[in-house]
Amino acid sequence: MHLLTVKAFAKINLGLLITAKRPDGYHTLETIFAPINWYDTIEFADSELISMSCSNIDLPVDDNNLCIKAAKSLQQFASVKKGVAMTLHKEVPFGAGLGGGSSDAATVLRVLNDLWQVNASPVELHALAVKLGADVPYFLAMKGLAYATGIGDNLEDLGLTLPYYIVTVFPEEHISTVWAYKNFYPRFARELPDLKFLASELCRFRKTDGFPAFENDFEPAVFDNFPAVRLVKSTLLASGSVFASLSGSGSAVFGLFEREDEALAAMKRLPQSYRVCLTPPGFDMGQ
Asked: Which of the following is catalytic: 40, 69, 90, 135?
């Protein structure tokens, strides 16, 4: 029996600073997560077993899939005997730096916590989310902008939303996170900007003086190896974007626009083969 259909929204990164490399091989970072109106849809149905199907045949639906992992981690945590049949309608591109898979996993944790009546606490769900991936806790607990440190799992809700139209572009280049961390150009010894202050100034007063400080440390290496991605940023800036940047480890690029007509005009200047999303000002994942 069909139970529920839920949207799983994607994100962009307003600044992404890689600050150090830990002994275990993971990198620490600072970033500002912001939600966008680009989403997958997940249908949940009664089942004795945990299973999944997906509209994108290129996405595996075996035990390596984050949705399956999320369901099984909650099942094991709570010793639940129930299963679930999930159908993922995949719209957010993977290999894009938009956190689509992480958002899907967080949605599965949140929904099944209710459907299975597990009633796990936010702290318990956070612990499960961290094991699934660094971005999963953001999608589990936040609605608007959030400041993240650690590997992206230490979160602070900023209580803010972006007052701009956001054009997010996927230039049909898939970039793995593993490749990005192997190839970025480290700059650990430097003075870091105050991302929380810059985000507050941007959202509350539309102050754009701090935009140069909202750097993405993956951007130079990605642009050097994927010139089509660099061209998207140039196109957005030439079309009137007040700021444009790579999102996450790429390849998606976003631009912030003061006016809707400028945002729509910028979208028309991009190749028709590119997937594009327009997010309105003030958007959060509670909408």
From this structure: 135
